[in-house]
Protein backbone atom coordinates (compact mmCIF):
# COMPACT_ATOMS: atom_id res chain seq x y z
CA UNK A 1 0.00 0.00 0.00
CA UNK A 2 3.04 2.26 0.25
CA UNK A 3 2.65 5.31 -1.99
CA UNK A 4 -1.07 4.77 -2.59
CA UNK A 5 -3.52 7.51 -1.57
CA UNK A 6 -5.61 7.10 1.57
CA UNK A 7 -9.24 6.18 1.81
CA UNK A 8 -12.33 8.38 1.49
CA UNK A 9 -12.96 10.70 4.41
CA UNK A 10 -16.47 9.28 4.76
CA UNK A 11 -14.89 6.18 6.29
CA UNK A 12 -13.07 8.18 8.95
CA UNK A 13 -14.18 6.96 12.34
CA UNK A 14 -16.80 4.67 10.83
CA UNK A 15 -16.70 1.45 12.88
CA UNK A 16 -17.89 -1.98 11.90
CA UNK A 17 -21.39 -2.78 13.12
CA UNK A 18 -21.06 -4.04 16.70
CA UNK A 19 -23.39 -6.97 16.06
CA UNK A 20 -21.13 -8.18 13.25
CA UNK A 21 -17.99 -7.57 15.32
CA UNK A 22 -19.24 -9.59 18.29
CA UNK A 23 -20.31 -12.43 16.00
CA UNK A 24 -16.85 -12.37 14.42
CA UNK A 25 -15.19 -12.61 17.84
CA UNK A 26 -17.47 -15.50 18.76
CA UNK A 27 -16.55 -17.38 15.59
CA UNK A 28 -12.86 -16.81 16.24
CA UNK A 29 -13.15 -18.31 19.73
CA UNK A 30 -15.13 -21.24 18.38
CA UNK A 31 -12.43 -21.83 15.76
CA UNK A 32 -9.96 -22.18 18.63
CA UNK A 33 -12.01 -25.07 19.98
CA UNK A 34 -14.11 -23.25 22.59
CA UNK A 35 -17.78 -24.10 23.08
CA UNK A 36 -19.27 -20.69 22.27
CA UNK A 37 -22.96 -19.76 22.40
CA UNK A 38 -23.57 -16.74 20.20
CA UNK A 39 -26.59 -14.56 20.97
CA UNK A 40 -25.15 -11.68 18.97
CA UNK A 41 -26.98 -11.83 15.64
CA UNK A 42 -30.70 -11.42 15.00
CA UNK A 43 -31.22 -14.39 12.72
CA UNK A 44 -34.22 -16.73 13.04
CA UNK A 45 -33.34 -20.38 13.62
CA UNK A 46 -36.38 -21.50 11.61
CA UNK A 47 -36.07 -22.86 8.07
CA UNK A 48 -37.22 -20.73 5.12
CA UNK A 49 -40.73 -21.68 3.91
CA UNK A 50 -40.84 -24.70 1.62
CA UNK A 51 -43.02 -22.81 -0.82
CA UNK A 52 -40.29 -20.16 -1.24
CA UNK A 53 -37.60 -22.80 -1.81
CA UNK A 54 -39.74 -24.61 -4.39
CA UNK A 55 -40.61 -21.37 -6.18
CA UNK A 56 -36.95 -20.39 -6.45
CA UNK A 57 -36.08 -23.84 -7.79
CA UNK A 58 -38.87 -23.74 -10.37
CA UNK A 59 -37.81 -20.24 -11.43
CA UNK A 60 -34.28 -21.49 -12.04
CA UNK A 61 -35.58 -24.48 -14.00
CA UNK A 62 -37.75 -22.15 -16.07
CA UNK A 63 -34.76 -20.03 -17.04
CA UNK A 64 -35.57 -16.97 -14.91
CA UNK A 65 -31.86 -16.25 -14.55
CA UNK A 66 -31.44 -13.06 -16.58
CA UNK A 67 -30.98 -9.49 -15.35
CA UNK A 68 -34.10 -8.39 -13.45
CA UNK A 69 -35.68 -4.92 -13.41
CA UNK A 70 -33.76 -2.61 -11.09
CA UNK A 71 -36.67 -2.01 -8.72
CA UNK A 72 -38.08 -5.55 -8.64
CA UNK A 73 -39.91 -8.02 -10.85
CA UNK A 74 -43.57 -7.24 -11.62
CA UNK A 75 -44.63 -10.45 -9.88
CA UNK A 76 -42.87 -9.56 -6.63
CA UNK A 77 -43.93 -5.90 -6.72
CA UNK A 78 -47.55 -7.00 -7.08
CA UNK A 79 -47.11 -9.40 -4.15
CA UNK A 80 -45.63 -6.55 -2.09
CA UNK A 81 -48.50 -4.21 -3.03
CA UNK A 82 -51.02 -6.90 -2.08
CA UNK A 83 -49.20 -7.47 1.22
CA UNK A 84 -49.26 -3.77 2.10
CA UNK A 85 -52.98 -3.60 1.27
CA UNK A 86 -53.90 -6.81 3.10
CA UNK A 87 -51.78 -6.49 6.23
CA UNK A 88 -51.07 -2.78 6.65
CA UNK A 89 -54.08 -0.98 5.13
CA UNK A 90 -51.73 0.83 2.74
CA UNK A 91 -52.15 1.40 -0.98
CA UNK A 92 -49.00 1.67 -3.08
CA UNK A 93 -48.86 1.67 -6.88
CA UNK A 94 -46.17 -0.23 -8.76
CA UNK A 95 -44.05 2.91 -9.17
CA UNK A 96 -44.28 3.54 -5.41
CA UNK A 97 -42.55 0.24 -4.51
CA UNK A 98 -38.90 -0.78 -4.64
CA UNK A 99 -37.28 -4.16 -3.98
CA UNK A 100 -33.73 -4.10 -2.61
CA UNK A 101 -30.92 -6.35 -1.38
CA UNK A 102 -32.33 -6.61 2.12
CA UNK A 103 -33.81 -3.87 4.27
CA UNK A 104 -30.37 -2.35 4.77
CA UNK A 105 -30.16 -1.37 1.10
CA UNK A 106 -33.55 0.33 1.38
CA UNK A 107 -32.07 2.57 4.07
CA UNK A 108 -28.84 3.08 2.13
CA UNK A 109 -30.70 4.06 -1.05
CA UNK A 110 -33.05 6.41 0.78
CA UNK A 111 -30.31 8.22 2.70
CA UNK A 112 -27.98 8.44 -0.29
CA UNK A 113 -30.80 9.98 -2.32
CA UNK A 114 -31.76 12.59 0.27
CA UNK A 115 -29.07 13.27 2.90
CA UNK A 116 -26.53 16.04 2.33
CA UNK A 117 -23.59 16.84 4.64
CA UNK A 118 -24.86 18.47 7.83
CA UNK A 119 -28.41 17.14 7.51
CA UNK A 120 -29.75 15.64 10.72
CA UNK A 121 -31.20 12.14 10.91
CA UNK A 122 -33.20 11.67 14.11
CA UNK A 123 -32.88 8.17 15.53
CA UNK A 124 -34.72 7.05 18.68
CA UNK A 125 -32.30 5.34 21.05
CA UNK A 126 -31.85 2.44 21.62
CA UNK A 127 -31.55 1.85 17.88
CA UNK A 128 -30.44 -0.76 15.38
CA UNK A 129 -26.77 -0.05 14.80
CA UNK A 130 -26.97 0.59 11.04
CA UNK A 131 -29.24 3.66 11.04
CA UNK A 132 -26.66 6.17 12.33
CA UNK A 133 -23.77 4.45 10.55
CA UNK A 134 -25.45 4.73 7.14
CA UNK A 135 -26.45 8.35 7.80
CA UNK A 136 -22.83 9.19 8.65
CA UNK A 137 -21.59 7.68 5.39
CA UNK A 138 -23.32 10.50 3.50
CA UNK A 139 -22.28 13.29 5.86
CA UNK A 140 -25.48 13.14 7.86
CA UNK A 141 -25.49 13.93 11.56
CA UNK A 142 -27.28 11.35 13.73
CA UNK A 143 -29.33 12.95 16.49
CA UNK A 144 -30.72 10.72 19.21
CA UNK A 145 -34.14 10.86 20.86
CA UNK A 146 -33.99 9.04 24.18
CA UNK A 147 -36.49 6.21 24.75
CA UNK A 148 -36.55 5.42 28.45
CA UNK A 149 -37.13 2.02 30.02
CA UNK A 150 -39.83 3.52 32.24
CA UNK A 151 -41.74 4.43 29.04
CA UNK A 152 -41.44 0.88 27.76
CA UNK A 153 -38.62 2.09 25.45
CA UNK A 154 -41.28 3.73 23.24
CA UNK A 155 -40.69 7.09 21.58
CA UNK A 156 -42.61 9.89 23.27
CA UNK A 157 -43.67 13.16 21.67
CA UNK A 158 -41.67 15.08 24.28
CA UNK A 159 -38.46 13.19 23.52
CA UNK A 160 -38.92 13.77 19.80
CA UNK A 161 -39.74 17.45 20.17
CA UNK A 162 -36.61 17.96 22.25
CA UNK A 163 -34.29 17.04 19.36
CA UNK A 164 -36.02 18.09 16.12
CA UNK A 165 -34.63 21.16 14.36
CA UNK A 166 -34.95 22.82 10.96
CA UNK A 167 -31.93 20.73 9.89
CA UNK A 168 -33.77 17.45 10.54
CA UNK A 169 -34.47 15.61 7.27
CA UNK A 170 -35.35 12.11 8.51
CA UNK A 171 -36.99 10.55 11.54
CA UNK A 172 -36.41 6.81 11.90
CA UNK A 173 -39.16 4.74 13.52
CA UNK A 174 -38.43 1.08 14.23
CA UNK A 175 -41.29 -0.57 16.09
CA UNK A 176 -41.37 -3.40 17.07
CA UNK A 177 -37.90 -2.30 18.03
CA UNK A 178 -34.49 -3.83 17.71
CA UNK A 179 -32.95 -4.09 20.36
CA UNK A 180 -35.67 -3.55 22.99
CA UNK A 181 -38.79 -5.15 21.49
CA UNK A 182 -40.81 -2.00 22.20
CA UNK A 183 -44.13 -1.66 20.34
CA UNK A 184 -45.80 1.70 19.69
CA UNK A 185 -49.58 2.06 19.88
CA UNK A 186 -51.84 4.16 17.68
CA UNK A 187 -51.97 6.72 20.47
CA UNK A 188 -48.17 6.90 20.50
CA UNK A 189 -48.14 7.47 16.74
CA UNK A 190 -50.79 10.19 16.86
CA UNK A 191 -48.71 12.04 19.46
CA UNK A 192 -45.56 11.64 17.34
CA UNK A 193 -47.42 12.82 14.22
CA UNK A 194 -48.57 15.99 15.98
CA UNK A 195 -44.91 16.93 16.42
CA UNK A 196 -43.90 15.84 12.90
CA UNK A 197 -46.55 18.04 11.27
CA UNK A 198 -44.73 21.12 12.56
CA UNK A 199 -41.64 20.14 10.54
CA UNK A 200 -42.77 20.03 6.90
CA UNK A 201 -39.33 19.07 5.52
CA UNK A 202 -39.08 15.95 7.68
CA UNK A 203 -39.36 12.51 6.08
CA UNK A 204 -40.11 9.41 8.15
CA UNK A 205 -38.57 5.99 7.70
CA UNK A 206 -40.88 3.41 9.30
CA UNK A 207 -38.94 0.16 9.60
CA UNK A 208 -41.57 -2.52 10.27
CA UNK A 209 -39.46 -5.63 9.68
CA UNK A 210 -40.58 -7.19 12.98
CA UNK A 211 -44.28 -6.41 12.48
CA UNK A 212 -45.53 -10.00 12.90
CA UNK A 213 -43.50 -10.69 16.05
CA UNK A 214 -45.57 -9.14 18.85
CA UNK A 215 -46.63 -10.73 22.13
CA UNK A 216 -49.19 -10.62 24.93
CA UNK A 217 -51.95 -9.19 22.76
CA UNK A 218 -49.88 -6.27 21.46
CA UNK A 219 -50.57 -5.45 17.81
CA UNK A 220 -48.40 -3.71 15.27
CA UNK A 221 -49.89 -0.82 13.31
CA UNK A 222 -48.24 0.90 10.35
CA UNK A 223 -47.42 4.54 10.96
CA UNK A 224 -48.64 5.55 7.47
CA UNK A 225 -52.00 3.86 8.06
CA UNK A 226 -52.50 5.62 11.40
CA UNK A 227 -51.68 9.08 9.99
CA UNK A 228 -52.66 8.96 6.30
CA UNK A 229 -52.19 12.72 5.85
CA UNK A 230 -48.43 12.12 6.32
CA UNK A 231 -48.23 9.08 4.04
CA UNK A 232 -46.52 11.07 1.27
CA UNK A 233 -43.63 11.73 3.68
CA UNK A 234 -43.33 8.15 4.97
CA UNK A 235 -41.15 5.39 3.58
CA UNK A 236 -42.53 2.06 4.88
CA UNK A 237 -39.79 -0.57 5.01
CA UNK A 238 -40.25 -4.32 5.36
CA UNK A 239 -38.71 -7.53 4.12
CA UNK A 240 -38.49 -11.29 4.19
CA UNK A 241 -35.76 -11.75 6.81
CA UNK A 242 -37.51 -11.96 10.16
CA UNK A 243 -41.09 -13.28 10.05
CA UNK A 244 -40.33 -15.42 6.99
CA UNK A 245 -36.91 -16.64 8.19
CA UNK A 246 -35.37 -15.71 4.84
CA UNK A 247 -32.30 -13.75 5.97
CA UNK A 248 -29.91 -15.13 3.36
CA UNK A 249 -32.28 -14.48 0.48
CA UNK A 250 -31.60 -10.73 0.85
CA UNK A 251 -35.03 -9.41 -0.08
CA UNK A 252 -36.16 -6.11 1.39
CA UNK A 253 -38.81 -3.79 0.05
CA UNK A 254 -40.41 -0.44 0.68
CA UNK A 255 -43.38 1.67 -0.30
CA UNK A 256 -43.24 5.45 -0.52
CA UNK A 257 -43.87 8.55 -2.59
CA UNK A 258 -43.02 7.89 -6.25
CA UNK A 259 -40.51 10.77 -6.36
CA UNK A 260 -38.50 9.23 -3.53
CA UNK A 261 -38.81 5.73 -5.00
CA UNK A 262 -37.60 7.06 -8.37
CA UNK A 263 -34.55 8.61 -6.70
CA UNK A 264 -33.85 5.40 -4.79
CA UNK A 265 -34.13 3.39 -8.00
CA UNK A 266 -31.52 5.68 -9.58
CA UNK A 267 -29.16 4.97 -6.69
CA UNK A 268 -29.72 1.23 -6.92
CA UNK A 269 -29.28 1.18 -10.70
CA UNK A 270 -25.74 2.49 -10.24
CA UNK A 271 -24.92 0.27 -7.29
CA UNK A 272 -26.26 -3.28 -7.45
CA UNK A 273 -28.99 -3.09 -10.14
CA UNK A 274 -31.83 -5.54 -9.51
CA UNK A 275 -31.62 -8.32 -6.95
CA UNK A 276 -31.38 -12.07 -7.54
CA UNK A 277 -34.26 -13.29 -9.71
CA UNK A 278 -34.54 -16.57 -7.82
CA UNK A 279 -34.75 -14.83 -4.46
CA UNK A 280 -37.49 -12.61 -5.84
CA UNK A 281 -39.46 -15.63 -7.06
CA UNK A 282 -39.21 -17.24 -3.63
CA UNK A 283 -40.19 -14.02 -1.87
CA UNK A 284 -43.25 -13.56 -4.08
CA UNK A 285 -44.39 -17.11 -3.37
CA UNK A 286 -43.98 -16.61 0.38
CA UNK A 287 -45.86 -13.30 0.38
CA UNK A 288 -48.71 -14.76 -1.67
CA UNK A 289 -49.03 -17.92 0.46
CA UNK A 290 -51.07 -18.30 3.61
CA UNK A 291 -48.27 -18.68 6.14
CA UNK A 292 -50.30 -17.52 9.13
CA UNK A 293 -49.80 -20.84 10.93
CA UNK A 294 -46.02 -20.79 10.58
CA UNK A 295 -45.84 -17.12 11.61
CA UNK A 296 -47.97 -17.94 14.66
CA UNK A 297 -45.59 -20.78 15.53
CA UNK A 298 -42.64 -18.37 15.36
CA UNK A 299 -44.45 -15.80 17.47
CA UNK A 300 -45.35 -18.33 20.17
CA UNK A 301 -41.82 -19.75 20.16
CA UNK A 302 -40.19 -16.34 20.53
CA UNK A 303 -42.68 -15.34 23.24
CA UNK A 304 -41.75 -18.44 25.25
CA UNK A 305 -38.03 -17.90 24.74
CA UNK A 306 -38.01 -14.23 25.73
CA UNK A 307 -39.88 -15.14 28.94
CA UNK A 308 -37.39 -17.94 29.61
CA UNK A 309 -34.44 -15.58 29.24
CA UNK A 310 -35.99 -12.57 30.99
CA UNK A 311 -37.07 -14.68 33.99
CA UNK A 312 -33.61 -16.21 34.32
CA UNK A 313 -31.80 -12.88 34.09
CA UNK A 314 -34.11 -11.17 36.59
CA UNK A 315 -32.97 -13.62 39.24
CA UNK A 316 -29.36 -12.47 38.96
CA UNK A 317 -27.97 -9.87 41.38
CA UNK A 318 -27.34 -6.52 39.73
CA UNK A 319 -29.39 -7.36 36.62
CA UNK A 320 -32.79 -5.98 35.57
CA UNK A 321 -34.78 -7.09 32.53
CA UNK A 322 -37.95 -5.63 31.04
CA UNK A 323 -40.19 -8.14 29.25
CA UNK A 324 -40.16 -7.21 25.53
CA UNK A 325 -43.45 -6.70 23.67
CA UNK A 326 -42.06 -7.77 20.29
CA UNK A 327 -39.12 -8.86 18.10
CA UNK A 328 -36.83 -11.62 19.45
CA UNK A 329 -34.38 -9.88 21.75
CA UNK A 330 -34.10 -9.10 25.44
CA UNK A 331 -32.31 -5.98 26.63
CA UNK A 332 -31.24 -6.47 30.25
CA UNK A 333 -29.77 -3.68 32.36
CA UNK A 334 -26.50 -4.48 34.11
CA UNK A 335 -25.84 -1.30 36.11
CA UNK A 336 -25.56 -3.32 39.30
CA UNK A 337 -22.72 -5.39 37.86
CA UNK A 338 -20.42 -2.51 36.99
CA UNK A 339 -17.55 -1.38 39.15
CA UNK A 340 -16.78 -5.02 39.91
CA UNK A 341 -14.11 -7.48 38.81
CA UNK A 342 -14.77 -10.74 36.99
CA UNK A 343 -13.45 -14.10 38.13
CA UNK A 344 -10.90 -13.80 35.34
CA UNK A 345 -9.59 -10.52 36.73
CA UNK A 346 -11.27 -8.12 34.28
CA UNK A 347 -12.48 -4.82 35.71
CA UNK A 348 -16.01 -4.05 34.48
CA UNK A 349 -16.54 -0.33 34.04
CA UNK A 350 -18.98 -0.46 31.09
CA UNK A 351 -21.38 -2.77 29.28
CA UNK A 352 -18.66 -3.19 26.66
CA UNK A 353 -16.29 -4.49 29.35
CA UNK A 354 -19.02 -6.83 30.58
CA UNK A 355 -19.83 -8.20 27.10
CA UNK A 356 -16.16 -8.80 26.24
CA UNK A 357 -15.44 -10.47 29.58
CA UNK A 358 -18.57 -12.61 29.28
CA UNK A 359 -17.44 -13.81 25.87
CA UNK A 360 -13.84 -14.49 26.91
CA UNK A 361 -14.63 -16.16 30.24
CA UNK A 362 -18.10 -17.70 29.85
CA UNK A 363 -18.09 -18.06 26.06
CA UNK A 364 -21.45 -16.33 25.58
CA UNK A 365 -21.58 -13.68 22.86
CA UNK A 366 -23.89 -10.72 23.39
CA UNK A 367 -23.80 -7.12 22.14
CA UNK A 368 -23.09 -4.22 24.52
CA UNK A 369 -25.77 -1.56 24.86
CA UNK A 370 -23.35 1.20 23.87
CA UNK A 371 -23.68 -0.05 20.28
CA UNK A 372 -27.41 0.71 20.40
CA UNK A 373 -27.09 4.09 22.08
CA UNK A 374 -28.18 3.21 25.60
CA UNK A 375 -25.95 1.89 28.39
CA UNK A 376 -25.45 -0.04 30.57
CA UNK A 377 -27.42 -2.79 28.84
CA UNK A 378 -26.80 -5.89 26.74
CA UNK A 379 -28.72 -7.22 23.76
CA UNK A 380 -29.33 -10.96 23.67
CA UNK A 381 -30.98 -12.62 20.68
CA UNK A 382 -33.57 -15.28 21.53
CA UNK A 383 -33.48 -16.71 18.01
CA UNK A 384 -31.91 -19.99 19.06
CA UNK A 385 -33.09 -23.16 20.78
CA UNK A 386 -34.52 -23.31 24.29
CA UNK A 387 -31.69 -25.65 25.27
CA UNK A 388 -29.02 -23.21 24.10
CA UNK A 389 -30.77 -20.30 25.80
CA UNK A 390 -30.94 -22.19 29.10
CA UNK A 391 -27.25 -23.00 28.89
CA UNK A 392 -26.41 -19.40 27.99
CA UNK A 393 -28.40 -18.11 30.97
CA UNK A 394 -26.69 -20.61 33.25
CA UNK A 395 -23.28 -19.42 32.05
CA UNK A 396 -24.28 -15.78 32.52
CA UNK A 397 -25.49 -16.65 36.01
CA UNK A 398 -22.15 -18.23 36.92
CA UNK A 399 -20.31 -15.26 35.45
CA UNK A 400 -22.36 -12.76 37.48
CA UNK A 401 -22.02 -14.87 40.65
CA UNK A 402 -18.25 -14.73 40.20
CA UNK A 403 -18.10 -10.93 40.23
CA UNK A 404 -16.41 -9.34 43.24
Could you characterize the architecture of this molecule?
By secondary structure, this protein is of the alpha/beta class. It folds into two domains: 148 residues, Aspartate Aminotransferase, domain 1, CATH 3.90.1150.10; 239 residues, Aspartate Aminotransferase, domain 2 (3-Layer(aba) Sandwich). Helix content is 39%, strand content 13%. The chain contains 13 helices and 14 strands. The protein has a seven-stranded mixed beta sheet with strand order 2-8-7-6-5-3-4, with helices on both faces. Strands 9-14-13 form a three-stranded antiparallel beta sheet. A two-stranded parallel sheet has the order 1-12. Strand 3, helix 5 and strand 4 form a beta-alpha-beta unit. Helix 2 crosses helix 10. The longest helix has 23 residues. The N and C termini lie far apart (47 Å). The mean pLDDT is 95.
